[in-house]
Amino acid sequence: MFKFEIIKKSKRSKARVGKVYTNHGVIDTPMFMPVGTQATVKTMSPRNLNEIEAQIILGNTYHLYLRPGNQLIKNAGGLHKFMSWDKPILTDSGGFQVYSLAHKRKVLECGVEFSSHLDGTKHLFTPQKVVEIQQDFGSDIMMPLDECVAYPCDKKQVEESVNRTTCWAKESEQSIVNSAQNGALFGIVQGGCFQDLRKRSAEEIAALGFPGFGVGGLSVGEPQNQMFDMLDIVTDILPEDKPKHLMGVGFASDILGAIKRGADLFDCVIPTRLARHGSFLTLEGKTSIRQSRFEKDFSPIDPDCDCYTCKTFTKAYIRHLFWAREILAMQLLTIHNLRFFIRLMAKVRKEILDEN
Amino acid sequence: MFKFEIIKKSKRSKARVGKVYTNHGVIDTPMFMPVGTQATVKTMSPRNLNEIEAQIILGNTYHLYLRPGNQLIKNAGGLHKFMSWDKPILTDSGGFQVYSLAHKRKVLECGVEFSSHLDGTKHLFTPQKVVEIQQDFGSDIMMPLDECVAYPCDKKQVEESVNRTTCWAKESEQSIVNSAQNGALFGIVQGGCFQDLRKRSAEEIAALGFPGFGVGGLSVGEPQNQMFDMLDIVTDILPEDKPKHLMGVGFASDILGAIKRGADLFDCVIPTRLARHGSFLTLEGKTSIRQSRFEKDFSPIDPDCDCYTCKTFTKAYIRHLFWAREILAMQLLTIHNLRFFIRLMAKVRKEILDEN
């Protein structure tokens, strides 16, 4: 089961409020998805995620395929049951991780050959295999194998990646074993920072009739205005009535700008990674809790925040935990940073709904 | 406020069920106290501690004095408020940590001179200072500065440590600034593994009329039967109607044996440390979750355990988290291991209460 419903469109931009219906529940859009790379959102238990009102999390196909393996997850009853998370899960295609993590990556016509970053063993991802892996996971939203290129990148190379991504998207679609429990397979648009290639990729992928779309290859080093330009081109072409996931983006300002350009779903490691390194997020940006000015600061990180961390602890205490290298420190800031992003999405939805 | 009430004495041993009343609530004894060295029980939030039904935690005076400092904790409103834990706290004397952690330790008549293990700075702990620090913390149970010796140890040295410990105990008692909010200062018995010195120390400390007692210098390498013998001597001498804390002990079998010898309170880093290293506790002892036999084990650690970990996750999943070096793994095993000890204490209390 998969359905997208637009509740309200903004008159001021391409922003919209919607609902995605899946086998594991409903997602309000725009929505931020915490990243749970290895079948856990780092430092967070499922109940912590429920408490911050996460509605969907993201898992990484590349990581989970290598460890603990899709067969083990299938035997456990799927990824939801394995990690004890009963709300929706989106899994990525592994394309970006192969591109950024794997050793000795080699792109072939039929897929990508790579060596595991864990133990050097050789593996082959084909479009069919990547779909099969995600069906073993029981993901609510699956992504097809795509080819992500670096920024900046030679136009010829980007063109090849667009061709390959379209070709693999077709093969992925044909690989789905249909059942009532099936998740939805999205199509991914690539095209680097070339307007004509973005346009072509969006047209080719739109033509394949996917129930939703990922916009890939952005937030890889290009300036924000270029990212926005590319996104604008893509959302003008993709069908308006389908949800769009701007993959791997980003900072709050990136996300707010992308919502205005029609993006609905977001994921990024920024809130969780910054938390583990001791930075908390507010509307003013990121701030390191380690600073000496917080030593005797007995106020919460954000007095207006409703998260457990802000309702319970002071900056002085959290700072102490970081300097003392206590693990709890990382969890407390992760709770706050993720809640910050999820509250931000709720605020944006409310603003659109309140528009006259 | 501090009161100890014996609810029932066992007819089969010196074991008893009791209640300790403090300004921050009641403690059922026998009770295990999770160790919160640096103003946090490692990986556990206060609500995690409440959930496993921890009734009292232990803080380390040495660590907290060095970082964040007793003055800062006092300014925060005390240790309870600083760490957001509203139930009782016992703080140790720092004696054992100075003995085991500090550099260039020098025992003087007036106290102990040492260099911080953090930055090498020089400090002096006197009996008075150690009481003042703990009054800054607002601890419910305070421990006086004592001298812990190694095992095995020359008798002359142990005798000196007994003399010093008694002398410092008197000075500690005189240093208390009395108020209604005051915690109770316990007396500490030393004496190594010498029967006559244990006897003498117990008599001298008992004579000072403390509202409760710590038994120190055990579980430092001596065989279990020696530890039990020493404890037996001490609990025969100390007033029966006062609570006794067997400091830093231990494994489940140590604790169960010690309860029969009249000990009421226990603390140890074993459950939390083992958890962070990937071992879980059951009545059979400790087991490493990393073992390959758990790879496809989709059952909980202990089907009879009521902790969040056992009610929610499988061994296969927790094993995966450890191999993937995920922080959540450490928290999940800590929850289980501490709950295991706390349930064990509840079971012992029930057995005594159910005796005919």
TrEMBL record, chains A, B:
Keyword Transferase: yes
Required co-factors: Zn(2+)
EC numbers, comma separated: 2.4.2.29
Active site location: 92, 267
Entry-linked InterPro entries: ArchSynthase1/Queuine_TRR, TGT, TGT-like_sf, tRNA_ribo_trans-like
Pathway per the UniProt entry: tRNA modification; tRNA-queuosine biosynthesis
Keyword RNA-binding among record annotations: no
GO CC term (a single one): cytosol
Cofactor binding mode and count: Binds 1 zinc ion per subunit.
Chain ranges of the tRNA-guanine(15) transglycosylase-like domain: 14-355
Annotated positions binding Zn(2+): 305, 307, 310, 336
Keywords of this entry: Glycosyltransferase, Metal-binding, Queuosine biosynthesis, Transferase, tRNA processing, Zinc
UniProt-listed GO biological process terms: tRNA queuosine(34) biosynthetic process
Record-linked Pfam families: TGT
GO molecular function, one term: metal ion binding
Reactions catalysed according to its record: 7-aminomethyl-7-carbaguanine + guanosine(34) in tRNA = 7-aminomethyl-7-carbaguanosine(34) in tRNA + guanine
UniProt function note: Catalyzes the base-exchange of a guanine (G) residue with the queuine precursor 7-aminomethyl-7-deazaguanine (PreQ1) at position 34 (anticodon wobble position) in tRNAs with GU(N) anticodons (tRNA-Asp, -Asn, -His and -Tyr). Catalysis occurs through a double-displacement mechanism. The nucleophile active site attacks the C1' of nucleotide 34 to detach the guanine base from the RNA, forming a covalent enzyme-RNA intermediate. The proton acceptor active site deprotonates the incoming PreQ1, allowing a nucleophilic attack on the C1' of the ribose to form the product.
Protein family per UniProt: Belongs to the queuine tRNA-ribosyltransferase family.
Subunit structure: Homodimer. Within each dimer, one monomer is responsible for RNA recognition and catalysis, while the other monomer binds to the replacement base PreQ1.
The name this protein goes by in its record: Queuine tRNA-ribosyltransferase
UniProt gene name: tgt
